[in-house]
Amino acid sequence: MQDQASRITYGAMMVALFAILLAMTLYVPLLGLLTLLLVPLPITIYRLRYDRISTLMVAMCTWLITLLIGGLLSIPAAVVLSAVGFVIGDTVRTGKTKLYVYMATGVTLLISLSLLYLGTVWFMKINPIEQLMQQFSAIQQEALVILTGMGNSTRDIERTVAEAFTYYQTIVPSLFILSVFVTAYLFVMPILAVATRLRFEVPKFASFLTMRLPFATVLAYLALLLISILSQPEQGTTFYLMEANAILIFRFLFFLQGLALIYYALRKMKLPMIVNVLATLFAMFLSPFTVMLGVLDIAINIRTWIDKDKRA
Questions:
Q1: Which of 197, 229, 245 is the last residue of a domain?
Q2: Would the pLDDT of 1 be above 60?
Q3: What is the dihedral of CA 277, 281, 282, 283, to 10 degrees?
Q4: Membrane spanning segments where (predicted)?
């Protein structure tokens, strides 16, 4: 009986905390960007203490309180955020690794947002992708007008601008996937940090400096580039869509690998943290070079050379 009473009391506290964080997210412009990342926290904390069924009941209570705070249109967001909190809490409670927690959160967020998109199209007759494509077309026409006014060849400009905007429209799926997993990381890190402060046992990531992708990723990337060069797929085809998105995702992974290598070298040189910040800016500005560093680090293990130089 006492356990049941404590479940209800603690659940009411978590629902109240969820309501406060959600209200701050909706109605406090700048602070809301930070509190958004903590909205799933009450569900995570509750799941770390109690079973799945009780946690789901608390999550449904948060949907009801969301109806009062933000109206009917806010409920889908509350469902997504509570699902994220549940998955983080459940994977930590069952002893999964931090990478597993992160990947599960990313997949949950991806599926939830995809279902939210389908619901928006079916029930509200609003297609965000079509609206984005229309904005692309409007920007393309504005770019043509500006460049034509500078006295350049109209035919060359139209072809160049059309190819550029077709490429950007093509990579929308991979940009969406990458942004979802970046967002998942931004959810996982502060929530687990708070859980650690509350004395819950949470897993830890290995240091970013030790990041090392499998050698197979280099082989797959090179094979993809070779196929792309030999086949020369036409823009707008399904194969071009798949190839462009796959290459973008690979380059993002190799960019992270190259950035980890840069941080590793700076750590060995014992330089101040401000150098890491400047190096990150340069790495983003010179992203093709950073990607190449990442590929070389996987292929020939540049870190062993850095370690040999330090020992010498």
A1: 197
A2: no
A3: 90
A4: 12-43, 63-88, 100-124, 171-192, 213-232, 244-266, 278-302
